[in-house]
Design brief:
Protein name: EVI5L protein
Strand content: under 5%
Pfam families: RabGAP-TBC
CATH architecture of one domain: Orthogonal Bundle
Keywords: Membrane, Transmembrane, Transmembrane helix
Number of helices: 17
Number of strands: 0
Distance between the termini: 28 Å
Order of helices and strands: HHHHHHHHHHHHHHHHH
GO molecular function, one term: GTPase activator activity
InterPro entries: Rab-GAP-TBC_dom, Rab-GAP_TBC_sf, Rab_GAP_TBC_domain
Length: 336
C-alpha cells in the first residue's frame, strides 16, 4: 500500500492494508491473513514441511537421473533426515497431547532423535563444504545443488547461502548504507506507519522500540533513497523482514537490492504495478487451464484473482504460509 499518489492500483489484500488510514477492523488486532503462526524459520515446528518434501514439483525425477551414486546417497540421507524430523515432531506432539504415554513411545522418540543428530552432523559437514567450494558447486554440481536446495537449506547456513545465490557478498552499495541512514527520505512516515503490521506476532518485531522494527525501518528507508522511483511499498517489508531474521541489516539490504534489481521484484513495486497485473493475468490463465471448474465457480461469484492473489506475489507467499514453509519456498525462489 502506498500514499495518495499511488491510488487507483490493483487492490492489495486486507493483509497488506489500503492506502490512507488503517481500516477500523484492523486497529485492535492483526488482520487474519497476517496472523499466521509467526515463528522463526528454525523453529521445531515442522508441520507442513512434509508436503513440501513430497510434492512432485520439488523433486522431479529428471533432475536426479544423472547424479552419481555418492550424490544420490547424500540426497537419500537428507530425505531420511526430513522423515525423522517429521516422525520425531509427531511423536512429541503425541506425547504432549496424552497422559497415557507408554515406555515404547519414549524409546522411539529417543531413537529418532539420536539418528537425527547423526544426520544433522552429516548435513552440517556437507553444507560447510558447499559454502567453502561454492564456485565449483555452481559450475560442476549444479543439479545436485538444486536438489539439495529443494530439500531445504539448513537454517544456520541460510544467511551466507542466500547471499551467495544472488551474488550479494561484495556489493559497492553496502559501503553507502551508513550514509543513507543519515539522510532523510520522503517515505519515512509511511514506513513508520506500517512497521507494526509486519510480522506482528514475531518476537523479533514485537514492540514499538524493538530491534526488529528499528532495523526493518533502516533497510526500507535506505532502499527508498537508492531507488526513488519505487520508493516504498508495504509488501516489500515482509521480504526484508524475512531477510533480517537470517542476517544483519547491511547484508539484508544488499540481498534486497539484488532481489529488486535482478529478480524482477522491482517491477512489482513500481508505481504502475504493471508486473503485478501481468502475474495475475498469467495466473488466471493457469487457473483456467489447470482448474477449469474452480475458475468457473470463481467467475460466477465475481471472486476476482486480485482479491486473494496480490499478496502472494507482493510478499512471495510470506503472509500466506507459516514461516518454516514460506522460508522453504524462498530457498527455491532464490535459486530458481
Amino acid at each position: 500500500a502506498r500514499g495518495k499518489r499511488r491510488e487507483g492500483r490493483l487492490p492489495l489484500t486486507p493483509a497488506l492494508g489500503v492506502p490512507g488510514e488503517t481500516p477500523k477492523s484492523s486497529r485492535s488486532r492483526p488482520p487474519a491473513a497476517m496472523a499466521s503462526p509467526a515463528v522463526s524459520p528454525d523453529s521445531s515446528s515442522h508441520e507442513g514441511l512434509s508436503s513440501v518434501n513430497s510434492a512432485p514439483a520439488c523433486s522431479p525425477a529428471s533432475d536426479s537421473e544423472n547424479l552419481s551414486p555418492d550424490e544420490l546417497e547424500l540426497l537419500a540421507k537428507l530425505e531420511e533426515q526430513n522423515r525423522l524430523l517429521e516422525a520425531d515432531s509427531k511423536s512429541m506432539r503425541s506425547m504432549n497431547g496424552s497422559r497415557r504415554n507408554s515406555g515404547s513411545s519414549l524409546v522411539s522418540s529417543s531413537s529418532a532423535s539420536s539418528n537425527l543428530s547423526h544426520l544433522e552432523e552429516d548435513t552440517w559437514i556437507l553444507w560447510g563444504r558447499i559454502v567453502n567450494e561454492w564456485d565449483e558447486w555452481r559450475k560442476k554440481k549444479e543439479k545436485l545443488l538444486k536438489e539439495l536446495i529443494r530439500k531445504g537449506i539448513p537454517h544456520h547456513f541460510r544467511a551466507i547461502v542466500w547471499q551467495l545465490l544472488c551474488s550479494a557478498t561484495d556489493m559497492p552499495v553496502k559501503n553507502q548504507y551508513s550514509e543513507l541512514l543519515k539522510m532523510s527520505s520522503p517515505c519515512e512516515k509511511l514506513i513508520r506507519r506500517d512497521i507494526a503490521r509486519t510480522y506482528p506476532e514475531h518476537e523479533f518485531f514485537k514492540g514499538q522500540d524493538s530491534l526488529g522494527q528499528e532495523v526493518l525501518f533502516n533497510v526500507m528507508k535506505a532502499y527508498s533513497l537508492v531507488d526513488r522511483e519505487v520508493g516504498y511499498c508495504q509488501g516489500s517489508a515482509f521480504i526484508v523482514g524475512l531477510l533480517l531474521m537470517q542476517m544483519p541489516e547491511e547484508e539484508a539490504f544488499c540481498v534486497f537490492v539484488k532481489l529488486m534489481q535482478e529478480y524482477r521484484l522491482r517491477e512489482l513495486f513500481k508505481p504502475s504495478m504493471a508486473q503485478l497485473g501481468l502475474c495475475i493475468y498469467q495466473f488466471e490463465y493457469l487457473l483456467q487451464e489447470q482448474l477449469p471448474e474452480l475458475n468457473i465457480h470463481f467467475r460466477s461469484q465475481s471472486f476476482l484473482t486480485s482479491m486473494y492473489a496480490s499478496s502472494w506475489f507482493l510478499t512471495l507467499f510470506l503472509t500466506t504460509f507459516p514461516l518454516p514453509v514460506a522460508t522453504r519456498v524462498f530457498d527455491i525462489f532464490m535459486y530458481e
